[in-house]
What does this fold into?
Amino acid sequence: MTAARPPKPLGVLPHIPTGVDRAKLDSIFNKLTDYPEGFTVHPKLGRQFETRAKMYADGEVDWALAEAMAYGSLVQEGHPVRLAGQDSRRGTFSHRHAALIDNNTGSPWIPLDNLDDASANFWVFDSLLSEYAAMGYEYGYSHANRDALVLWEAQFGDFVNGAQIIIDQYIVAAEDKWKQQNGVVLLLPHGYEGQGPEHSSARIERFLTLAAEDNMQIVNATTAANFFHLLRRQVHSERNTPLIVFSPKSGLRMKQTRSSVEELTTGSFSEVLDDLGVVDVNAVTRIVFCSGKVAWDAIAERDQRNAAVAIVRIEQLYPLPTEQMRDLLQKYPNAKELRWLQEEPENMGAWNFIEHNVWRIKDEGYDLRHVARAPSGSPATGSKAIHDQELAQLMDQLFATTED
It folds into this structure.
């Protein structure tokens, strides 16, 4: 008897609208500083929130504000939100401030759990320093409460190592083994900032090795709006699948990651983001596909060199949006040089996964190559000076001519 072949993966799902009315966004924003009577906010935070208010009045949101808008809109719609991690109330990089502490009494106040017209709760917890136990608990909670958005956040993405058993046994395999679907979200700070080997990589390559049969979504978003729509998509999607998000560190405050408020009112998550800085598509001879923070390094370098290069961001690595990538190739008719750029070492990151999925493009006359750090046994160097040298070398390789 011949065993039946598994069904063909669905791949990239159709887009679903996840925008929120401007009036609702305004009400959520106003609640963030609608302190209880007698509440004294920390003076430094007060000044920070004044800066945030000016940004919002100017029509922009940063990463933390877009995240708060996503959570707030979900609890208003009746979907509980539960976020846990080793420093999740404040945010490891002091960006979130989901729980405020009275500067005089020490009493906590959680703005998103006090929204008007909310029909669900927002919970945020600082968990113990045990990734294995904490992630396992949140996975179980997500399984028990299907209506909730449940997120576990690593202090640094590398710390996911401590919960690898939960990932291998449950997050990536439970649906195949037991038909058990789960929508838990992992927020894993990722990005090479020169902070050393334990504070750089959330091990993209491991998750991509484990990706098959639509068993999870692997995302490396680069704009506040795309992150907003991603979180809302996770709840409103018909398919209940774990979501792995390689979240930014320096990108939390970069102006390049900001979005307009209007981008939150309409639209949906975009798996691919084209290069809006290209003026003449016919002049482009090289397309660089990349994911995450390194895109901003490449864009800045491209602008400085005035190179005829398009920097295209792959926001979703799995399921890989190959059709959207192909559509972009048609937009740039004279670009036959394709590069995959990553900041991780060659034996890590997404390169091997990307090449496995797109290598046949070479048969159509495209020159496909990669740009990465040298293969390494460690995720990153421990020296900031060497890190800077490696980044400069990456950019030189990326913009080198094919003869170099």
Notes: The chain has a mean pLDDT of 95. The first strand starts at residue 60 and ends at 61.
